[in-house]
Amino acid sequence: MTFLTDWREPCATHELGDLERTDFAFEFLRRNPDYRHDHARTERRIASGEVDGRVARKEFARRWGLHFPGRSQHLLPRPGSAVAG
Q1: How far apart are the C-alpha atoms of 26 and 61, rounded to whole Å?
Q2: pTM, 2 dp
Q3: Distance from CA of residue 22 to its chain's centroid?
Q4: What is the C-alpha separation between 45 and 67, in angstroms, rounded?
Q5: pLDDT at residue 68 tops 90
């Protein structure tokens, strides 16, 4: 994923042309103050133990219409499974 520092810079025209649709969508969202506020709030609630991280992130994704096709469920830890470390 490509991150643009400032879309207003002259070199950004070329960089914007190289973005995939998902990259462009991410660039749009990461500049949205409501999205950023909601993301920070969600992460604070997870860190405080107020909510389960998996559930909270799933709800966050639903609120913002985020969908991750092709993400393998087998890569996610199963409840009760040991995590190698």
Answers
A1: 13
A2: 0.59
A3: 11
A4: 22
A5: no
